[in-house]
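ARCHIVE CARD
Drawer: 12
Card no.: 0347
Subject: one protein chain, sequence and derived structure
Cross-reference: see card 0346
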Amino acid sequence: MGLPVFELTATGIDPRLTTRQLIENNVNAVVASLYGEISAAASGLSAVGSWDASVGTFPSGTAKGDYYIVSVAGTVNGQAFVIGDWLVSLTASASTSVFAANWFRADYSLLDRREFASIAAASASTTLIDGVTYEITSAFNGQKEFVKYVSNSTLTADGALILTTAMATGRLVSTRRVVPDVAALLADIRGLSDGTRVRAGETDFVVSATGHLLGAGSQKYHARPEVPGAYSLETLGCNADGENNRTRIQQALTNLPPRSTILVPPCPHATVWPVEMPSDSSDTKVLTMTQHINLKGTSARSTCQLGFITAGSGVDGLSLEPASEWRGFRMEQIGIWFNGAYGRHGVSIPAGHSAINQSLISDCLMWGTAANSGYAISCLGGASSWKHSVIQNCELQGPIWANWGDRNVIRDNSFLASAFAAIYMDLEDGVYNNEVHSNTGVAKGGFLDVINGNRINVTNNQIEQFPGYGANDSAISASIVLRGTTRPARGVRVEGNNFGGGSNVDYSLYVMNARGTYIGPNQWNAADVTDIHFTAAGGYNYLHPAQQMRRNSYTRPHNGINGLKITPNGMWDHGVPFTLTGENSWSDCAVYKEMDGTLRFIDRPSGGTLTAGTVMYTLPVGGRPIIGAHGVASNSDGSFVISATPATGRIALVDAAPSALDVNMPNTIRNADWDSGWTG
């Protein structure tokens, strides 16, 4: 018999020439080796009969070319034989104990591979041979699956990936690694080489020394998600095992490719996915993110929750550590439970970040204890961190602490029952254009505390109080405080807000060390409070005269405008009423300064001396006309001329007044900082 040669027929252009040649070369090499071995039996093959390999020795007294078929499996001289294998003698009187150069074994399993339409059909077969590989159609993807029958295997004994336990003896063990779920994947204790592909449920995995998922036997896997770059908690091996979830999620945060997304589905076992820190741990963070990884819930935020369970104080939930690239970070539809009572935070952004730009925290639930002293979101990164970003549509039981950069927006969030204010802003000088818009705040400690900051727009918020926790215990009991601790808070805009609720604060708006504040039309509905308080530390703020009335039933106080209760202490705050003290028996008079510098009289002077030359009032410095001017005043008994003197600021009668009844003063006086003169 001549040497057989394998040739692969090509149809059209498939397979390609190089592929065809490679296949032919390898197959012919195997054929040549086998042909050489068999040809060595010059007398040809001679069937002798069956051989029981379990006896532990090879047959004796053989002639060259004798062959036996294995009837009982066994191992001799390190060679494992299964039923159906062929044993061929290569020489006369072949050794009964040494395999090499004496015997040739033909693997019967390679010649007798069986096919089954399903796992159930294979498991029902009564002719399965131990150690033989079978081909089965997978129920998961309809593709061919190769399995090996292991007669002495049980599900709990070897931890291998068993496709079925519905067998009287033995198990069908996957060789291509298609299994029902991640739990079955993680139970495998057999070592697999790097690059081996495994399918668990609906997700493909690849064995990798740097994989994010650690299984039994120190085997590591890297998921190949259905959606590129997105990995569900179930894919990461999470379940309801508490501390185990912390380990799995932390592995993913550390080892997934940068900018990947972790998907948080509803927990199948409980309200939240427990992420537990051991009681003996010295860590200060439950989870640490050292690279850009996004988090996204797959359903309502109330069902996609991570429960940060800590044994003591001083522990943050999720810490976003400084990394080289955070642009576009996303955290959406995630629920977080954190131990705010211990003074730590749900999400922490520490100092040292180079930039977290164009990022988003949206539709999240951050829930702590009722008396939180920690923050739902704490950003200490400074001007270079968290800028041009948005926090929106979140429900927060805990404040936001903002020490961040330019052009951030906090909008459409609900703040509930925080022990302190809902939002703190401590912004570096040169940080501008942050916005607090359309939020609802129900907090014991007020709504917004601007410790330091410039050009902050505070608009259209519903600002309620929370008397259920008792009186506000902060140093300044106010719904909004423009504090200006290290420098004046400049250019803050407060407009379109509704100040409502009970009486656990003393002030709706407390303007402390602030300059250039614009207070536009707001609703002032809080009971038994001072609506706006100005301190002597600030100045040059502007209160719009078109303020809406707080309540129609309120009698306008002497120092109020349109029913507002105002404490005017600032240095020439525009639109803010202050009192001119009457002289020569003229009544005190409330006035305010317009943005263009004109001085408007709120009250009508009365009761004073009528003689020409009588001084009625003295204008303070900064409110005096630039040059002397005259104007016409009048009442029901007639009109008369009054004058204002630049040097002294005195407003005096030029003519004798007809009476001291309510006097209509000239409509405007312009001070020294703007155009001179009177307008009638």
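Annotation on reverse: The mean pLDDT is 77. Helices lie at 17-39, 108-111, 119-123, 155-158, 182-186, 243-255.
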